[in-house]
């Protein structure tokens, strides 16, 4: 149950975005979408209400997920440091997980997305 949770989903592939959005909205979450890292940083910075978590694709045009995470973490806001940022990627090697965590991400969810893994990971960071 994600009712009352506000999530920023950053994904450049429209089909992947639709799938994730459907999963999250079906569980009651409010979903705000960004299609590249630069848009994600702008959306986060411009919204004082904040988000409960960010689902961040890694490989995107304009600004990738690693750069976007670093930019969000560098913002002068308390929530920028503590918000859970979860990598959402097909890159599943141990080195990929380490690179995401080194960039400031809290966790790693692989694509194709497994519904149980998605919700278990969100639960871990939102409860």
Summarize the model shown.
The protein is α/β, with parallel strands linked by helices and 127 residues long. The chain is built from six helices and five strands; from the N terminus they run βαβαβααβαβα.
Task: Characterise this structure.
With 127 residues, the chain is an alpha/beta fold. Helix content is 46%, strand content 19%. It is built from six helices and five strands; from the N terminus they run βαβαβααβαβα. It has helices at residues 14-26, 37-46, 65-73, 78-82, 94-102, 115-126, and strands spanning 6-10, 30-34, 53-57, 85-89, 107-110. The protein has a five-stranded parallel sheet, with helices on both faces. Helix 2 packs parallel to helix 3. The N and C termini lie close together (11 Å). The mean pLDDT is 92.
Give the oligomer, counting copies of the same chain as homo and different chains as hetero. Answer: single chain
Overall pLDDT level: 92
Q: Helicity range of the residues? A: 40-55%
**Shape by Cα distribution:** globular
* DSSP strand tally: 5
Tell me the strand percentage band. 15-25%
Widest beta sheet: strand line-up: 2-1-3-4-5
N-end to C-end Cα span: 11 Å
Briefly note the structural class of the backbone.
Answer: alpha/beta
* H/E element order: EHEHEHHEHEH
User: Uncertain runs with pLDDT below 50, 5 residues or more?
Assistant: none
Number of helices: 6
Radius of gyration: 13 Å
The main pleated sheet reads as: 5 strands, parallel
């Amino acid at each position: 149950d994600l009712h009352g949770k506000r999530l920023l989903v950053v994904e450049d592939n429209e089909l992947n975005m639709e799938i994730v959005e459907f999963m999250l909205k079906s569980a009651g979450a409010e979903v705000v979408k960004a299609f590249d890292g630069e848009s994600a940083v702008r959306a986060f910075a411009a919204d004082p209400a904040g988000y409960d978590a960010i689902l961040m694709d890694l490989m995107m045009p304009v600004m990738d997920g690693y750069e976007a995470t670093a930019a969000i973490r560098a913002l002068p806001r308390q929530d920028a440091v503590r918000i859970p940022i979860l990598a959402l990627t097909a890159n599943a090697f141990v080195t990929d997980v380490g690179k995401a965590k080194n960039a400031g991400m809290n966790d790693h969810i692989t694509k194709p997305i497994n519904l149980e893994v998605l919700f278990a990971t969100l639960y871990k960071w939102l409860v």
